[in-house]
Amino acid sequence: VPRAQHEAAEAGLRAEAAALAQRLQELERRHEKTCEEVFRVQRQALFMKSERQAAEDRLGAAQKQLEQAQDEARRLRELHGHAEDAARLVRDRDRKITELSKEVFRLKEALNALPESGPPPQSPPNTAALQARIRALEEKLQETETRHSKVVTLYRSHLLYAVQ
């Protein structure tokens, strides 16, 4: 092989080796950058995973609070229904007490209207019946007032519990 051709081939191979070495250095730099990028992405993925876990934990806590609030609201609605029932009972009892009071008053008026100077000819049995009726109505009134006060007490305790 002629020397000039050999030297030309050697120079070409050296140039090719230098170009390959330069290309290898460039690939090594790109590989380092890629490794750094992969490390950064992995670190970021790990951070995002921990953030996601924290967010899921907060979501779970918020859902639990929501369920508790819904349970509390349901319980308060039930208590409100009981309080309304108690209020209706109180109104009914008040109405009954008022009616009984009116009837007792009317009977007392009727009794007072009877002449007191001696027994009337045919009314002693009627007066005794009216007095018995008045006593029975007064006892019923007393009983109703007692039940009414118990219902009012229950109603107040329900309201206080609902407020708390």
Features of this protein?
2 helices, 92% helix, rod-shaped, 164 residues, single chain, mainly alpha
Rg for CA atoms: 50 Å
* Alpha-beta content class: mainly alpha
| Separation, N- and C-terminal Cα atoms | 108 Å
Give the overall shape: rod-shaped
Helix percent reads over 70%
DSSP summary: helix tally: 2
Domain count, please report it.
1
Number of strands: 0
Main sheet makeup: none
Mean pLDDT: 87
> Low-confidence runs (pLDDT<50, min 5 residues)?
none
Quote the beta fraction: under 5%
- Would you list the SSEs in sequence order as H and E? HH
Keywords: Coiled coil, Repeat
GO molecular function: actin binding
Coiled coil: 10-86
Protein name: ANR24 protein
